[in-house]
Design a protein that fits this description.
The chain is of the alpha/beta class. It contains 12 helices and 11 strands. The strands form 2 sheets. A 6-stranded mixed sheet has the order 6-7-8-9-11-10, sandwiched between helices. The protein has a 5-stranded parallel sheet with strand order 2-1-3-4-5. Strand 10 and strand 11 form a beta hairpin. Helix 1 runs antiparallel to helix 4. The longest helix has 24 residues.
């Protein structure tokens, strides 16, 4: 049988969620199954086409809900988990009959899947404790400082750069398969992973200079626009290392498939963040978590994204 897993692409927690779920599902429910992966990205016109659900069983982890009747498993921890109110009603009507799990209080989806696997199904993967631990740190931004997050000294943090900034989904899916059996240091020692990391790290170092030149901080809010630069997948903690006095950051970036407004809060801020950033982003068709969110526009809508970003900047500064 074939189990299709849709996961949040270019995200450490998304990859780790797919890896943990695959171990759990394969060992507890579907021994010998073929696992196939599809990376999902937030887009301006988000749709779940029927062709995505081509497995005998189909799962979504760390990504929005789909009302497709072929969906067998769903795990998510984002406040903005539903594309529409009707999707939320569909979830409510199905959740007791299907294996659908949603809890926005969890800092990482990997931790949530591990919790459900243990408490509901009596399943544990002791050798994946490191993976679960780092998913919580990375998705929860539980670094000691912005400098530590930017330095990326640990294997998990280096691997995060590879996952977030590598092109396409093929390498990420190879990492997902490796995560199921290997330590993170072993994955980073892989020749292909090492070769991919080096130029990405050089680009990361250059991005610090670009953000430092373009960014400015006023009334606790950093704003910068890198839509004219190759800056998709930059380290989101760089702004806080450059402007430690900031509480929030708002930025505009451009990729081949979207223009993105990113909105975040400083985990080490001198002033406690008071705005729910997911709620702000939801007003413009985006979403996320209370402390971090994003809005996707079409690639041609850079000016609209800039307009929205500046509106959010004014709101956060007020």
């Amino acid at each position: 049988m074939k189990l299709r897993v849709l996961y949040h692409d270019h995200c450490f927690d998304g990859a780790a969620s797919a890896a943990f779920f695959s171990r759990f599902a394969g060992e507890r429910f579907y021994p010998g199954a073929e696992f196939a992966y599809t990376g999902m990205a937030h887009k301006a016109s988000q749709l779940f086409e029927d062709s995505l659900f081509d497995g005998d069983e189909n799962a979504i982890v760390d990504f929005k809900y789909s009302n497709n009747d072929r969906l067998s498993w769903w795990f998510d921890h984002h406040q903005s988990a539903f594309l529409s109110h009707s999707d939320q009603l569909d979830y409510e009507s199905k959740k007791d009959q299907r294996r659908y799990y949603f809890d926005p209080t969890y800092r990482s989806c990997t931790e949530f899947i591990a919790h459900v696997a243990r408490t509901t199904y009596g399943y544990e993967a002791v050798d994946l404790a490191e993976l679960v631990h780092w998913a919580g740190i990375i998705d929860g931004a539980l670094y000691k400082s912005a400098g530590e997050a930017v330095a990326m000294a640990e294997p998990a943090m280096k691997l995060t750069l590879v996952i977030e900034a590598s092109k396409g989904s093929e390498l990420v899916q190879r990492i997902i398969r490796m995560m199921q059996t290997k330590k993170l240091s072993e994955i980073m020692a892989d020749p292909e992973i090492c070769a991919t990391f080096q130029p990405l790290h050089e680009r990361h170092v250059r991005s610090i200079d670009v953000i430092g030149r373009l960014g400015h901080c006023t009334d606790g809010v950093i704003y910068f626009d890198v839509a004219d630069y190759d800056m998709e997948g930059y380290n989101k903690f760089v702004p806080y290392s450059l402007f430690p006095q900031a509480t929030y950051t708002v930025s505009v970036s451009l990729a081949s498939f979207r223009t993105k407004v990113s909105v975040g809060s400083n985990p080490w801020a001198p002033a406690e963040p008071t705005h729910n950033l997911a709620t702000i982003c939801e007003r413009y068709g985006g979403g996320g978590h209370p402390r971090v969110g994003a809005i996707s526009f079409e690639p041609s809508q850079v000016e609209e994204a800039r307009r929205v970003a500046k509106e959010i900047v004014l709101e956060l500064r007020s």
